[in-house]
UniProtKB/TrEMBL annotation:
CDD domains: Lipase_3. The lineage of its organism: Eukaryota, Viridiplantae, Streptophyta, Embryophyta, Tracheophyta. Pfam families: Lipase_3. Belongs to the AB hydrolase superfamily. Lipase family. It is found in: Plastid, Chloroplast. It comes from Protea cynaroides. This is Fungal lipase-type domain-containing protein. The keyword Lipid metabolism applies. Residues 252-399 form the Fungal lipase-type domain. One of its GO terms (biological process) is lipid catabolic process. Gene3D superfamilies: alpha/beta hydrolase. The keyword Transit peptide applies. One of its GO terms (molecular function) is phospholipase activity.
Amino acid sequence: MQIASTISTHNGIAFQASRSTSFNRRTSRLNTLKMQASVSNQTLTTESTRTHISNLDKLLPKQDPPPLLHNDSCNDSSLKNKAKNLLERLNLSKIWPEMQAAEEMSPRHLNRLQRLLSMSAERSPRNNLESRWREYHGCNDWAGLIDPLDENLRREVVRFGEFIQAAYHTFHSSPATSEEDAIFTRQVALPDRSYRVTKSLYATSSLRLPSWVDDLAPDLGWMTQRSSSVGYVAVCEDEREISRMGRRNIIIALRGTATCLEWAENVRDILVQVSGGDNSEPNQAAKVQCGFLSLYKTPGSNMPSLAKSVIDEIRRLMELYKGETLSITVTGHSLGASLALLAADELSTSAPDMPPIAVFSFGGPRVGNRAFADRISKNGVKVLRIANSQDVITRVPGMFVSEELDQKLRDNSKVAGMLNVLDNMPWAYSHVGTEFRVDSKISPYLKPNADVACCHDLEAYLHLVDGFMASDCPFRANAKRSLARLVKEQGSNVKKLYKSKAKNLTLNLDKQAVGIPSCLPSPSRP
């Protein structure tokens, strides 16, 4: 019995051991299956996450990552709080169910989403221009860079246009200007954080509306004011950007017409002689449009003229950065394009060691006669004139509607003498510089019959530059500029097919939009 019991006990132990081994095998196999399922789920989750991020990439415009901050915990905390707020608005729990809070996401995801949620125009990385900056600044009149359009030049032109948009926004956010405002630098939301505003600029009209106009519309009294914020001077202070560009750049950005008195000055289109240069021969003197010169030269009762403000500030910056390689970029739209030419002309002779000056103008009208154009060229000012073929503002004032016809007639020796006589007439205007021609009818997004305001709109210009490849090529399919702002400002001129597609791009656009008084035809018109 004892032996049997012992055998039974041993058999029981053997059975228990065998059953335990079998159970362990089943458990191990089950754990293996669970682990495989977990890995599979993680793979699916990862693939799903990647898909959602890819969709966000397509849906939202990209932006250059913010520059490295030299503060420590303060900046990191601020960045995390901003990213957390953005994530909460986006309701990411529907996209990543396993992530219930922003803190559970990695810093890489936070940085990526912060970049994706920016409403700035999508940009490709900026290339180093150090060895060729003079070429892009116009030393060869942009030969070989326009048709077909060089990618670096495209990027620079669009960026300069965005500087002008900042000048518009600054004015419309606070249109009323007192005489005391001139001593302060206005807050300007610059599109490029590597630049800092050093001087606010004001233009004053020599005209004055009757006082009863203010009595009729007291809330719009700012429209009859003679002095208004028209732009600013900014200088690049970021060492990495200075190194990339090959020099320290100074920007002068000037907006287009926005007040009643500025409109009144626009129609004063008689040519008047401008000071400076050799004007000993009256028939060969440089002349410019009367109204433009008035806005440029007229001082306010307690504020300097636009001319004096520009000259004094540039001289101050030249002295401040003496010994460095400098350049001056003057950029303007519509009326601002005209004032940019007047500023560049005067700057070119205001100091013996003046840095290279380039003008990038958008939708600019003619400013002066042929003698004025020749003087600007002789003084070394380089002008890139971006003109939309459908923009009538670029063909006024003056007698010759077509620049091509004007040049053909001048090349004809039989009529050259007659044209010399016409050059001295009161409306003998001539354009200045190198033309970069775009066409709103080429855009697949704009209606072919887009109205005058759209064809002259600054955002429409930037849209066309971004899509331009060459004069004999269609609109580029991989254009990267967001349609959101174009739809916001020119929705009636955008094809219906693209309005719905662009609707998703306007997440925070309403917060950035600036109200424009309804009594004004357009903030972009001259």
